[in-house]
């Protein structure tokens, strides 16, 4: 696949997504600086909401984040991928399994686990190498949870919320599933069905949103 072409979910031809990217980048021409501007814009302008998980085509379009203003880690990582590609910077979506030691009680109650699957990050090609970054956790959320927001310099990986402010374990990566040119929805669903079978009926119907209203 060519990263500068539209894909099923990475709709880089969307005019609102293009406008967002251009407004953030402005007159900046240096790829590393453009990438950093986009990273911080996506990290903090859209709130992280782990409950906004969907499997419909329209809701998994990267541009959908602009309509709702908040999203799951994969939605934010996918959105950043598209912005970077619009800015002529190659980028891919990464997915992993992580253990979150400071997840909300509501999230752990519903998942029946402190393991989050899949967790999304972005891989960016800058200065001749691929670099990882995680735009999921906005600054306000990090302050609330007692950890520092993940900064990114455009030169080194930034994926580990390894410790909170008191030095306690915050998040650890258990498995990396690799990177993808587009969001592999069926793979994400299969990973969730394996990790959280109670969230699905036998026919594959996703029950998360019904559980949230109980």
From TrEMBL:
Domain of life: Bacteria
Parts forming coiled coils: none
Cleavable signal peptide: none
InterPro entries linked to this entry: Papain-like_cys_pep_sf, Transglutaminase-like
Start and end residues of each Transglutaminase-like domain: 19-135
Name the record gives this protein: Transglutaminase-like domain-containing protein
Native source species: Persicobacter diffluens
Taxonomic lineage of the native organism: Bacteria, Pseudomonadati, Bacteroidota, Cytophagia, Cytophagales
């Amino acid at each position: 696949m060519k990263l500068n072409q539209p894909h099923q979910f990475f709709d880089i031809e969307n005019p609102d997504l293009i406008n967002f990217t251009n407004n953030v980048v402005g007159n900046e021409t240096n790829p590393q600086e453009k990438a950093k501007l986009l990273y911080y814009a996506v990290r903090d302008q859209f709130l992280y909401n782990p409950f906004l998980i969907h499997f419909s085509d329209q809701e998994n379009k990267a541009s959908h984040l602009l309509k709702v203003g908040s999203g799951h880690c994969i939605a934010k990582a996918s959105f950043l991928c598209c912005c970077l590609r619009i800015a002529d910077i190659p980028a891919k979506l990464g997915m992993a399994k992580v253990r979150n030691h400071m997840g909300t009680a509501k999230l752990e109650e519903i998942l029946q686990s402190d393991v989050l699957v899949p967790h999304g990050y972005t891989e960016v090609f800058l200065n001749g190498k691929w670099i990882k970054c995680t735009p999921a956790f906005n600054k306000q959320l990090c302050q609330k949870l007692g950890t520092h927001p993940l900064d990114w310099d455009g030169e080194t990986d930034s994926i580990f919320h390894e410790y909170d402010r008191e030095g306690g374990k915050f998040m650890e990566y258990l498995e990396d599933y690799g990177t993808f040119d587009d969001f592999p929805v069926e793979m994400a669903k299969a990973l969730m069905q394996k990790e959280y079978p109670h969230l699905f009926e036998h026919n594959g119907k996703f029950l998360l949103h019904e559980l949230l209203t109980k």
